[in-house]
Amino acid sequence: MTDRTAAPGFWTVVFLLLGAARKRGAGRVRRRLELQRKRGGFAAPPLLAPVIAVAFALVLNIGIAVEVAIAVSTAAHVQAAASLPRQAGTLPDIVAFILVAWWCLMMVCQGEELQVDTQRPRNPVWEWLFSHPASPAAIFFAEMIAPIAANPVYLTAPLFPGVLYGMAYGWPAGITAALLVGVPVAIALACMGKAVEIWAMLRLSPRVRGAVLGLMDWFAFALMLAFVFLATSLRATVTMAASALLRVADLPWPPMRLLVGQTSSGQFVFLLGLSLCWLLAAILIAAAFALSLASTRRGLTYRSRTAADRVAIAVRFGRDPLHRKELLWFQRDGSALVQAVLIPLLLAAVQMFNMRGVISDATSAWNAICGVAILFGTYFLIFLGPKSLASEGQALWIAQTWPRGLESLLKAKAKLWAEIASAIVGVVLLYTAVRFPSDLGGILVVAIAWYVFARSLADKTVTLATVTSSSGETEKPPMGLRLAAGLGTFSFAVGVMTGQWNFVVVGIVYSQLTAAAMWQNFRHRLPFLMDPWSATLPPAPTLLHAMVAIGAMVEAISVLMATAIGSHHIVAIRAVVYALCAIGATIGVSTFLAGRGVAQRDIWLWSSSERKVRPQLELDLRGALHVVTLTAAGAGLGAALGLAGYLYALGLHWWPDLGRGLEMGRSQLDALAPGERSAMFTMAVLFAPFAEEFLFRGLLYRALDREWGGWRALLGSAAFFAIYHPVLAWAPVAALGMMNAAIFKYTGRLAPAVAAHMAYNAVVLAL
Amino acid sequence: MPEAPDSPGPPQLLPLVSVENLVKTFGDKRALNGISFSVPAGQICGLLGPNGSGKTTLFRLLMGILKATSGRLTIDGLDAFEDRVVLKHSIGFLPDEPVFYAYLSARETLQLSAAMHGLDVPTAMASIQPLMNRMQLSEHIDEFAEEYSRGMKKKLGLLLALLHRPKLLILDEPTNGLDVEGTHLFYELIVDIAAQGTTVLFSTHLMDQVARLCSHVVVINRGTLIANGGIDALRSAYEEKSLEDIFRELTQAPVVS
After folding, report:
1. pTM
2. Theoretical Cys-Cys bridge with B92: which of A68, A474, A608, B161, CB 3.0 to 4.6 Å?
3. Residues 42 to 71 of B: which have CB under 8 A from any A CB?
4. How far is A336 from chain B (nearest CA, A)?
5. Is B24 a domain residue?
6. Residue B107 domain flag
7. Looking at the DSSP assignment, which residues form a beta bridge with residue B203?
8. What range does the domain containing B209 cover?
9. What 8-state DSSP symbol labels residue A387?
């Protein structure tokens, strides 16, 4: 037994709690690094992260101070140049007020850690703290200034006034000001932020509380980013804003120059600025304490005033109960607006800012504006999807008591996300329709295509949903899956923007198929979301294997073809490169799959129980005869389709433009040397069909049939096959894809499909 | 003993929950260390064990949220993990501290859950109404569930678990946080529910609760099964000691693996 000592003193308690706050912040950083290391990713040495954080905060605060100084001097120049009939210093005062208020708001909103994630653990242990024999005032004081200990942005905040004073009085005075002005100001701002947080925790209902805390996080992040963006065009922005600001110059703007001690006669008095800053800091601290005291007066936990919190109309949960639930969340929970709109909006806006060079001249054509809106919507969904389970929070257990609860829950989220993104994109499309009324038809088609695309994109990105563990860290899905989700994401937006409509089709087909592939994998991972220790790989081959193999093949072809640009033999080279890459991809993926226990016959024969007809697996004489008959029939069908393809090409000559394109390709073929021609013929007829049937039917269609089944799988795999061919060939190639998929499914063998493909290629090339 | 396939045996002898050599590890941590027991249908079974003994892990395995590292776990003849989707129709679950959607009222939460179980919502709500009255939740049913007191949340959680008339009811420390009146109501309800044929499996730390309700007791400690059987058998094996003494004796004995 230890002796009972006297209660700890005021400052002991304060320093103890501040130490705990600092450890809390450092611990979060450390755990994040540990997780990163566990996943095998790059992990910085433990000391690097805090050093980077402090350096960043340092640059931020000094940078903003410099920005303020430059903006104010620019404003003074503008006013002097315009020789306005106003008192000198009006415009600089207004600009200074806006920027300093902006900085203050950013500091108030920072909190203990800067993070645009409303699900961060906020678990005040006030009851527990107050159960100790320590002075409540000390606990309170420590709690109020805890952000300073945890967040380096507050630690470096004194440099902001320091730099401004330094510019007015020279550096020794600047350093003095950083200590004498900066420290109290930083404390005041931290206190104010904490007071708002305490008020929100104790006085607001859970639904409004989430919104207030989320908005604070969002503001902290958005205002900071705004400073970074402002830095890129500071003078121009101030000059541009000047005329608008002068229009409101008659409002009672505070004489901001007094804060650095500049009197109306232009003289600088250090003590004047110092005492004014002290006064403001004292008022702010007093207000913060008053707010937090008023908040705690009615108890340390939130109690609802029952009558006010009753739900007025109980809604019915009918055909689509989960979608209804998500709509109610969006409508009633204040944090929904922050989580599902403001945060992704901000992050997407940052991406648009990064691409401002590309999109700046996109206002001249309707499709360019639509394309930019779709690019924005695409980014919006990419940022929103992985956050899907965050809005569930601790109530996730309810979904786990339902049959297929998590899957339907995530699909419902995806639907809501697509609807929100479409509403945002829709606003821009509506504006475009008003500006270009004659292009209404095109805009409508783009709008419908966007919704189809957005649904699949949202489906895809919710599979990246992370679950927050009880200690507050989120485990991200593996890098490979995150990369796979990005496959072909932007071709839709780029296609619309540049008017390359084949890209639009490619984007939609790609997005639909990757969504199916991601869900096929995710459905296997979903039961282990809470149990990563039991997770296993989905049984190979999956749709994703097929898509990666095909993607790798196309990538290799493009790279090799790029080296042959300008050659006279481009047609022959293309055929040879294509065949070689296709065979290479086939051998590569076969080897990979063999390592995962998939034999060749598992791909060439389809004997799964999904199919009604079981193929004969034993190759006796009758069986062999059967296969030969099937193969011959396949070749016949292929030849017939080839003939149809030829007629289709003839039909295209009705349109002179299309006919000219076809003729050009034909003349290139005719110009080939006989040796080249026969090499091309051999590759296209004897080699490529093996590889293509292996990849597109043996792997892709079969895996897609498991996911979609029926007509949708047939069409989907054929569309995916067609988009790798020239646009004019899409229709016959898609027909070939559908026919071969059907042959594969109903005979259970790939050989007849290969024969059909060979016959088709032979007929098309010969004619 | 050979049994005629059609003989209508006493229903309480058929095991509803059957656990065979169940092992669950998290990395190198062993949460369950090869336990075997079975719970006959229609019984009230108490699961006892000190903190950290593996009770919650066992419940999560039963719910199909975790997958067993080895061994078998079947409910009503179906595998708890492989058949987890079908089994959700016949399992009701109440966690230790239920948390609800902050934006739905209690009524809406019940309606949503009924719809997600594929029930006809008005019928399901009507069928739960008497129970709701008994729990005195009816007058608060249109308030936001997340603002309920702890005891009310437990009651609402029990309503949610009973909505689809499960064959197996799993309750994690059900009376934790309930007042005397609420605890008493819970006792009555559990007895009623079991009388209607539902098997109840619940964990608790309160010995008098077990003595009062359970016909079957399972005791685990540090992931190992210590005792399993009818409560009377347990009592007589330990010479009529109080259950609390038996429990302390069991859990403090060195674990032999």
Report:
1. 0.81
2. B161
3. 60, 63-67, 69
4. 10
5. yes
6. no
7. B47, B172
8. 13-96+168-252
9. G
